[in-house]
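Researcher: I'm comparing several assemblies side by side, and this is the next one on my list. It has 670 residues spread over two chains. Same procedure as the others: predict the full complex and return the structure.
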Amino acid sequence: LAEVILDESDRSSGINEVHADRWQGRLWRAVIRVWIAGVLGFFFVNRLLESETIRRILHGVVAR
Amino acid sequence: MSIEFFRAVFGTVILGVASYGAGFWIQTALPPSLSRSERLAFSCLAGLGILGTSLFLVGQVAFTPLIIGAVLSMAVLSGIVNIARNPGSLSLTPEQPGAIPILPVIVIAFVLILTAVAADARIVGYENNDAIAYHFLGPKVWLRHGIVRPLLDTAYTGFPATVEMLYGALMVVAGPLGPGFSAVLTLTLFFCVVLSLAGRVGLDQNGAWWCVALVAIMPSVYVGGHSGFLDVFFASIVLAAARVAFDAERPAEYAVFGLFCGVALATKYTGLLAVSVLVLCAIVAKPKATPSSWRSVLRGAAISAAIASLLAAPYYVRNWIVLGCPIYPPPPGLSNICHTPYLSAEAIQEFHGYIRMRGGGLGRGLSAYLMLPFNITYHIGAFHGRAGGIGLAPLALGFLGLVAAWRDAFSRTLALLGWFFLTLWFFTDQESRFLIHGYAIGGIFAVLGWRYAVRTAGRSARLLSGAVVGLSVLYGCYGIVSARQDELHAVVSRSFAQEYRQEWTPYYDSFQYLNREPAVRKVLILDPTVPPYYSDNDYLEPFGFWGERVLPGVEEPEAILKRLHEFGITHVLDVESGVSDFRVPDNWPGLTLVLGRPNERVYRVE
């Protein structure tokens, strides 16, 4: 009986590990995508904020 | 293209063959992991260092076209004999399977062709341009004097001068455009070293070429590789040293590592820090990376240190004897110990203050340190000069490359080395050019990360990382072309070339007059901001830009004006720069005005 219980316990923990691995894998892939997209996105935001025209517009808005 | 341009091409080819002749013998002492083409590039790189140091040693006695020609001829002859004996050593056929990828090769070719074409325009600039201030000034004056001695009016000419010696040789064999055109050779060798490292960390042919393309197109890298700047050459030497050190097993391989360390020390003072880190990585990281015993690693490190010291010693010993300090101008630690007769304590303090201000870069403190990867990517334009940028790839993909390659001992050690470089740079002089070797390591890990992202995160990651690489390349192209647009314009338009030269040559009319007039033999330059590089005649500049005193004890310009005949002065260049408030008083006895412009005057000594 003890051996059956132990086998069952091992199997269920194995299934949980697979679930955890899948979940971690998805999370890791999402982290990679978000990170790369973030670096790309910030480049454009940074370019826009550094642009003289945008600065002038923002300055005008703030002044009003 | 002018005749001078073809002479520059010819002279650079001569230097390339001579470098092979001077360095081919290291090929058998390189680690077995290097391919035939890598051995060729590494031997040329080492050869350039050996040639520069040989010219420096010979130049202590005589530095004339004849002597330079003899040294180069011996090296060229040795190269030709070796090629004839072993024609396979010149083979550039890649050993790795697979075709060479077309896109990165186009990017690399673009950078090299642009460099070659822009080199047809003469390098001009003001005193704040390092090439004009000392990289070219030193060799030009040493050739004129026929001997290599630091110029007392320009403390920077006391820097280690391996590359400057090569510039001197190029001025003889390749003409005035030679030093500028030689950037094609040094950039090519740098790309070869990056390719070698990229292959060693496990990238296939396609990935390795992309590494080179990403690094080549970084404006921050490019800025240190053309128009007389020697930072790319220095980075090549440091990275070549790392490539050899992390695979070194035999004493001969450690000896080659020492050779590259010595060349680094003999090229730039920053080599002192870079070499310390290289030796540390080679000792500490290596026993874990390979089964080498501690004893053999320590013995290897001792061999490397001995050879490096031997190779670099002439520069530091010469400075100690002639200028009073092995490192000149003396850094904070040494300035209290050394006595420097040509540089006062106040001048040294002022110099330290300037370096601290200029090296402030991206700020100090923990938050600035933690923000470094981000700030280097987005805000590197905050640096002095046209620092450009490094593109988005190292930040976006570099850490993924680290994750991907962490299990590989060589990659891990390389990453550790990159981190050391970044940290040292942060705590010392944050001049963007001084981190080119770090940027190259960043480029390699970016491509490792690109591969990892595509393998792990699917199609969307492939698109995103492709966009990062594409944007980095486009951004780099824009940065590099805009940085050199004036030179390119000057190459295609003769009228613009004249306009450009006139605009960027300070006191153009005066120098034209002084260089044209046969009666001019020695010019007195009283204003420290006037770049003496433009004078083709001998000159005396009693007060240097950093407060150098050529004639200790003489503090007033009037004192010199009273002793013009004693110093053999035939003409006086008197300018109004806004820095020095001294002007030659009207009707000074014995001086006749021969050229008058609003801010510049030339007097003849009667």
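Model: For your comparison table: Helices of chain A lie at 2-50, 52-63.
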